[in-house]
C-alpha cells in the first residue's frame, strides 16, 4: 500500500463502520430496554421483524402469516435494489465478526476453496426451506440475529450488570461511601442496571457457541458469513438481481482488491460475485488507481454473468411451491401431543407447536421480572434446546405481568391481556407434607398462603388444635391454582421446597 | 530495605520517573498498610457494643394517640399529625427521615394491600416543611420491587413531592445485635432504616391469616432482609423484638381502605371496606391496639400486641390513654 492512499480519507468505509457501530449499539439498547416497564423507543420484536429468515420460514413452517412480516419483505426488496447492504452495514453479528477479524492482519491467499465453501450456506438455507415446507422450523439454529440477540440478552447484559453491581458493592462497603456514590448507584440501578443481576442456566454454552463463530475468523475474515449464514444466503439470492453494481474500468490486474476482499467476492480478474458482496466498500480504497466504483445499472442489463447459485426460474419455482404448501394447512396437526414435562410461560401455544415456533431469541427470559424464565438444555427433548422454562426455585410468574408474551417475536407465547393471563393455568402446586413445616415439624408458617396472588386464595389454611394452640396448615385448592410458582419461590424450607409446581401431566398422586 | 524506601521517596518528591517494580511495590505497600490499619483499628478502638439498635428519642406528642376520620386521606393525615403537635416535634431541621410505608405487593391503591399514596404524600410534605434534609421512602417487597413501587402509586407521588425512593440492596444490611437473648439476633436489617434521624412507620391496616391483622409492628418486617419466610415461626416474639430494635419515632396507620379478608396480598375488591380512618401515635402497641378495635377485633387476641404489653414495649390500655378523635369531614 503506497503512502498517498493511506492519507486519503476512506469516507465510505468510515460511514460503513459508523453504521455498523450504530446498529450494534441500537441492538444492544433495544435488548437492554427489554425489561419492565418496556419503556424503550423501539419494541423488542423490531429486530426480529426485519429478519426475513425468521419471519418467512417461521410463517411457512407454521402455515401462518406472522404479524410484521412486511418489514422483513421490505428489507428483501431493498436488497433487490442495493445488494447485501444488511450484512455489511447493519448485521450486528457481522459487526462482531468484523471486530474479531480486526485482530487478523494477514489475508488468506486466494485459492479455490473460498469459492467453494460459499455454497454451504445455500445448502443450509435449502435445508431450512425444505424443513419449513415439511412444517419444521429450524431457522433459529443458524440465524445470526437470534444468535447475537441471545448472547447479548443472556450473557453480555447479565455480566455487565453483575460487574457494575459488584464494583459498587465493594466501593461502597469498603470505603463507606454511603453518600453521593450510593445515590448514584441507586439511580443507576433504577434506570440502567435493574433490581438485581440476572443469571441464566446453560448460558456458558450459549456464549461458547457465539465464541466459536467469532473464532472462525482465524481461517479467514467473515468466515461465518461466507460459509454458514443462512440469512446471508437468503439475502444473496436477492442480491443476485440487485441494481447496484461494482465496475472496474481499465483494470491493471494488480489483484489488490481480490486478495483483500473480506467476503472473497472479487475474482482475480476483478470481476465479482454480486451475491457475495456485502458492500463493505473496502475495494474502493484498496484499488491503487481508484477506478473501482459502485453504480446503479438497469436491472436487466447484466443477465449473462451468472456464477452458479440459483436460477431465477428455480427461485420462483421454490417460492410458488412454498406457497402451495399452504394448501396442506392442517389445524389439527398439533392437537395430539399436548404433554408438557416443564412449565412453559403463560400463553405458550401447544407444546409441539411451541418448540417448533420458538426461535430461542431469549427475549422472554431477558424480560422476565423475576428471572424465573430460564433456557432449558435437553429437559424438553432434543428439539427443545434453549426454549424457555419457568424455574420457580429462581423466580415465579408475577401475577400482573404479561411481558413475555409482549416481546415474543413469533407469538410462540401469545399476547395475553392481564385478565386473560391471570386465568391462564401453567401448572399446579402440590404440598409435600413430609417436609412442610406445619405438617412435619408443627411450626407456624403460612408463607405460601400469604403470597398466593389469586383474589380467592388457591392456598387455604385449615386450623388444627395442638396443645391448646391453633396451628394453621396449608392446602391447595386445585380449582383456583394457576401454577404461578410464587409459593415455591418463597417457601422457606431448604434444600427442598415443601411446595412445588408441576405441569398438569406430571402431577404426582397424593 | 531502608535504601529502597528512600529511593522511592526521592523519586516521589523529586518527581523523577519511578520504575514499574517500584510502583508496584508502592501500591502493594500502601494496600497492606490500609488493610493493617483496618484490622488493627477494629481490634484496638472499636467499642464493644452489645446492641446496635436505633436510639430512641422518646418524643411524646400532645396526645398518646390521635384518630382521624374523613373523606380525604391527605387532609386527615395533616390534621392528625398537627393534632399530635406537628411534624416539627418529630423531625428536626436538616435531619434524615425514613418513611416506611407498606409497598409489599404488586397491587393498586384500590386493592388496599399497600399504604395509601395520599398519606405518604402528606407525610412527605410535612417533613419537608419541618426542614428535613432528606426523606427516604423504601420497602423490601414481597412481589417484584419495581412493579410494587409503580402499581402502589407511591413511587410516583413520593418522587413528585421530593422524597428519595429506592430499592434496598440485599448486601447493604446490618446484623442486628440485641442487649438480650433474641430469636432475631444477627438478623440482617437494611442499613438506611437504622441510620436515619427519624423513623416513621406507615403501615396499612389489613387482614393477615397468621397474625390476624397486619399493623405497625408487623409492617417493620419490611426493613428485614434475609430469609423472611423463616420469621413466621414464633412470629410474635420476633416482631416484638424487632419493634424494640427499630424503635419507630412515629407510627401512622392508614385505615382508609381496609382489606378485611384474603390478606395480606388481597386482590379481590369485594374484600375491601372503606373505613376512612387514620391513626397517629408514638406507641406502636397502642396504635395497633386501637386499630384492631377499629375492625372489631380484641387487641389481646393478636399475639404480638399481647406480647408487646408483657414485654413492656408499649401499652394497650385504650381506656387509660389520652386519645384525641378528630373528624375532617366539613
General shape of chain B: elongated
Proportion of beta-strand residues of chain B: 15-25%
Mean pLDDT of chain B: 90
Radius of gyration of chain A: 27 Å
Describe the structure.
The complex is a heterodimer of chains A (510) and B (330). By secondary structure, chain A is mostly helical. Chain A has 23 helices and 8 strands. Chain A has helices at 3-7, 11-32, 46-49, 52-62, 69-82, 85-90, 92-101, 113-133, 144-175, 180-193, 203-215, 223-227, 230-239, 256-260, 282-286, 312-324, 351-357, 363-367, 403-407, 418-422, 437-440, 447-451, 486-490, and strands at 244-248, 292-296, 373-375, 388-390, 428-431, 459-466, 469-476, 499-502. In chain A, strands 1-2 form a two-stranded antiparallel sheet. In chain A, helix 2 (11-32) packs across helix 7, helix 4 (52-62) runs parallel beside helix 8 and helix 9 (144-175) packs antiparallel against helix 10 (180-193). In chain A, 44% of the residues are buried. Chain B is an alpha/beta fold and 330 residues long. Chain B is 35% helix and 18% strand. Chain B has helices at 2-13, 20-44, 73-83, 117-129, 145-151, 154-160, 191-194, 216-219, 235-246, 284-294, 303-310, and strands at 65-69, 96-101, 134-137, 164-165, 173-175, 188-190, 198-202, 204-208, 212-214, 250-259, 272-281, 323-327. In chain B, strands 1, 2, 3, 4, 7, 8, 9, 10, 11 and 12 form a 10-stranded mixed beta sheet that branches. In chain B, strands 5-6 form a two-stranded antiparallel sheet. The radius of gyration of chain B is 24 Å and the shape is elongated. The interface between A and B is large, with 39 and 35 residues.
Amino acid at each position: 500500500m503506497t503512502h498517498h492512499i493511506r492519507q486519503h480519507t476512506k469516507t465510505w468505509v468510515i460511514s460503513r463502520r459508523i453504521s455498523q457501530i450504530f446498529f450494534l449499539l441500537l441492538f444492544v439498547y433495544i435488548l437492554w430496554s427489554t425489561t419492565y416497564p418496556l419503556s424503550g423507543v423501539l419494541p423488542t420484536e423490531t429486530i426480529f421483524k426485519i429478519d426475513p429468515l425468521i419471519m418467512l420460514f417461521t410463517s411457512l413452517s407454521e402455515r401462518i402469516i406472522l404479524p410484521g412480516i412486511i418489514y422483513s419483505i421490505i428489507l428483501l426488496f431493498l436488497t433487490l435494489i442495493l445488494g447485501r447492504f444488511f450484512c455489511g452495514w447493519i448485521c450486528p453479528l457481522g459487526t462482531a465478526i468484523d471486530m474479531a477479524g480486526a485482530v487478523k492482519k494477514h489475508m488468506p491467499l486466494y485459492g479455490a476453496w473460498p469459492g467453494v465453501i460459499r455454497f454451504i450456506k445455500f445448502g443450509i438455507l435449502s435445508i431450512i426451506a425444505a424443513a419449513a415446507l415439511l412444517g419444521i422450523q429450524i431457522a433459529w439454529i443458524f440465524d445470526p440475529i437470534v444468535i447475537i440477540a441471545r448472547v447479548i440478552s443472556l450473557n453480555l447484559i447479565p455480566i455487565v450488570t453483575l460487574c457494575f453491581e459488584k464494583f459498587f458493592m465493594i466501593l461502597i462497603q469498603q470505603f463507606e461511601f454511603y453518600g453521593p456514590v450510593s445515590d448514584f448507584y441507586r439511580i443507576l440501578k433504577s434506570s440502567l442496571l435493574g433490581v438485581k443481576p440476572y443469571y441464566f442456566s446453560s448460558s456458558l454454552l450459549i456464549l461458547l457457541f457465539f465464541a466459536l463463530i467469532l473464532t472462525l475468523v482465524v481461517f479467514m475474515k467473515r468466515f461465518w458469513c461466507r460459509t454458514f449464514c443462512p440469512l446471508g444466503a437468503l439475502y444473496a439470492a436477492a442480491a443476485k438481481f440487485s441494481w447496484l453494481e461494482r465496475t472496474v474500468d481499465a483494470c491493471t490486474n494488480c489483484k489488490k482488491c481480490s486478495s483483500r476482499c473480506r467476503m472473497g467476492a472479487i475474482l482475480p480478474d476483478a470481476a465479482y460475485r454480486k451475491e457475495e458482496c456485502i458492500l463493505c466498500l473496502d475495494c474502493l480504497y484498496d484499488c491503487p488507481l481508484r477506478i473501482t466504483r459502485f453504480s446503479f445499472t438497469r436491472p436487466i442489463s447484466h443477465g449473462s454473468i451468472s456464477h452458479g447459485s440459483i436460477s431465477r426460474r428455480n427461485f420462483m419455482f421454490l417460492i410458488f411451491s412454498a406457497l402451495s404448501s399452504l394448501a396442506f394447512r392442517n389445524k389439527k396437526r398439533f392437537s395430539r401431543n399436548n404433554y408438557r414435562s416443564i412449565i412453559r410461560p403463560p400463553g405458550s401455544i401447544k407444546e409441539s407447536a411451541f418448540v417448533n415456533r420458538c426461535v430461542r431469541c431469549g427475549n422472554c427470559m431477558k424480560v422476565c421480572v423475576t428471572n424465573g424464565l430460564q433456557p432449558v438444555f435437553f429437559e424438553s427433548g432434543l428439539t427443545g434446546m434453549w426454549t424457555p422454562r419457568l424455574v420457580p426455585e429462581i423466580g415465579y410468574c408475577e401475577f400482573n405481568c404479561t411481558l413475555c408474551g409482549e416481546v415474543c417475536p413469533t407469538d410462540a407465547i401469545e399476547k395475553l391481556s392481564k385478565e386473560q393471563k391471570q386465568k391462564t393455568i401453567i401448572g399446579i402446586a402440590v404440598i409435600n407434607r413430609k417436609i412442610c413445616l406445619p405438617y412435619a415439624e408443627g411450626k407456624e408458617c403460612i408463607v405460601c398462603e400469604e403470597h398466593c396472588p389469586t383474589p380467592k386464595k388457591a392456598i387455604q389454611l385449615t386450623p388444627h388444635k395442638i396443645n391448646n394452640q391453633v396451628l394453621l396448615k396449608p392446602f391447595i385448592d386445585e380449582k383456583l391454582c394457576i401454577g404461578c410458582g410464587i409459593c415455591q419461590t418463597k417457601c422457606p424450607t431448604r434444600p427442598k421446597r415443601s411446595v412445588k409446581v408441576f405441569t398438569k401431566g406430571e402431577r404426582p398422586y397424593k | 530495605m531502608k535504601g529502597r524506601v528512600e529511593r522511592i521517596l526521592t523519586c516521589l518528591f523529586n518527581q523523577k520517573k519511578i520504575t514499574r517494580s517500584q510502583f508496584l511495590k508502592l501500591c502493594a505497600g500502601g494496600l497492606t498498610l490500609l488493610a493493617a490499619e483496618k484490622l488493627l483499628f477494629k481490634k484496638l478502638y472499636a467499642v464493644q457494643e452489645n446492641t446496635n439498635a436505633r436510639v430512641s428519642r422518646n418524643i411524646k406528642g400532645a396526645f398518646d394517640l390521635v384518630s382521624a376520620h374523613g373523606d380525604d386521606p391527605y387532609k386527615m393525615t395533616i390534621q392528625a399529625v398537627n393534632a399530635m403537635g406537628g411534624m416539627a416535634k418529630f423531625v428536626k431541621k436538616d435531619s434524615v427521615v425514613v418513611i416506611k410505608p407498606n409497598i409489599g405487593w404488586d397491587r393498586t391503591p384500590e386493592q388496599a394491600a399497600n399504604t395509601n399514596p395520599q398519606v405518604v404524600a402528606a407525610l412527605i410534605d410535612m417533613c419537608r416543611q419541618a426542614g428535613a434534609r432528606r426523606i427516604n421512602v423504601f420497602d423490601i417487597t414481597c412481589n417484584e420491587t419495581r412493579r410494587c413501587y409503580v402499581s402502589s402509586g407511591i413511587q410516583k407521588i413520593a418522587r413528585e413531592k421530593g422524597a428519595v425512593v429506592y430499592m434496598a440492596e440485599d448486601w447493604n444490611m446490618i446484623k442486628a445485635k440485641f442487649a438480650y437473648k433474641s430469636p432475631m439476633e444477627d438478623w440482617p436489617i437494611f442499613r438506611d432504616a437504622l441510620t436515619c434521624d427519624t423513623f416513621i412507620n406507615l403501615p396499612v391496616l389489613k387482614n393477615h391469616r397468621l397474625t390476624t391483622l397486619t399493623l405497625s409492628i408487623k409492617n417493620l418486617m419490611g426493613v428485614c432482609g434475609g430469609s423472611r419466610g423463616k420469621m413466621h415461626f414464633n412470629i410474635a416474639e420476633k416482631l416484638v423484638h424487632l419493634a424494640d430494635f427499630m424503635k419507630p419515632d412515629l407510627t401512622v396507620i392508614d385505615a382508609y381502605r381496609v382489606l378485611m379478608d384474603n390478606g395480606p396480598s388481597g386482590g379481590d375488591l369485594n374484600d375491601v371496606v372503606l373505613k376512612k380512618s387514620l391513626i397517629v401515635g408514638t406507641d406502636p402497641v397502642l396504635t395497633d391496639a386501637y386499630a384492631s378495635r377499629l375492625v372489631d377485633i380484641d387487641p389481646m387476641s393478636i399475639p404480638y400486641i399481647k406480647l408487646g404489653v408483657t414485654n413492656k414495649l408499649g401499652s394497650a390500655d385504650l381506656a387509660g390513654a389520652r386519645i384525641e378523635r378528630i373528624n375532617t369531614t366539613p
